[in-house]
Structure formats: C-alpha cells, structure tokens
Amino acid sequence: MAAYGRPTLRDLFDDSPTPHIAHPPRTHHREFYVATDGSFRVAGGGLGVVIETRDGERVARLSIPDDPPDNNVAEYRALHLGLDVQRGESPASVDQPEAAAPIERTTAAK
C-alpha cells in the first residue's frame, strides 16, 4: 500500500496529463509500475527506483550512489536499474539483492 497521504504510482500514472499517448488504453494498466530518477552532481550523483504493484503495494525501493558524466546518463542508468530490479536481476553493485524478491514471488504466483 502507498504511504498514508501519498498516491500510488498507478494513480500518478493514471492522472498524468497524457497517459494514453505513452500508454495506449488497451495496455495502460500493468501489473507493476516503475518510477525511476537519476541525479548528476559534480561530487557524485545517485539512482533511485520505486516499484509498486497495480494495487499500490510497494515491492522495491532502492537508491544507490553513482558517478554519471551528466544528467541524461543518470536518468538512463536509473531506468536501466529499475528494469533490472523489476526483472529480478539486481546488479552486483547493489547492496540489497533481496529488493527484487517480492517481485519474483508476485510474478511466480501468477
């Protein structure tokens, strides 16, 4: 469930200004919602990932330090990290390999 007072990722995606451009109506509602963010700073940045089920249950929340060359690369690396975690393939540099376990259990149950 989403934290009290905070919308689920699904609600955020559903309320976005152009959800049907990026997600056609027939494919808009998915089993998992992945939100990523990458940041760049000269002294080092970071990558962040939040993954929730369609019901709003958080199955992964991860942030790791990174040293990207610019903000675009940081955003791309964060997206790649989010997809890897969702698939259950946490990179070796992530200290929390169990972050993907709830996703694997949910996927296996289907």
Could you explain the architecture of this structure?
The chain contains four helices and three strands; from the N terminus they run ααβββαα. The protein has a three-stranded antiparallel beta sheet. About 7% of the residues have low confidence. The protein is α+β, with helices and mostly antiparallel strands and 110 residues long. Strand 2 and strand 3 form a beta hairpin. It has one domain. The chain is elongated, with a radius of gyration of 15 Å.
Helix fraction, binned, reads: 25-40%
In whole angstroms, how far apart are the ends? 19 Å
Proportion of residues in extended strands: 15-25%
Task: Write down how many β-strands occur, each being a DSSP E stretch of 2 or more residues.
Answer: 3
Count of folded domains: 1
- State the order of secondary-structure elements, H for helix, E for strand: HHEEEHH
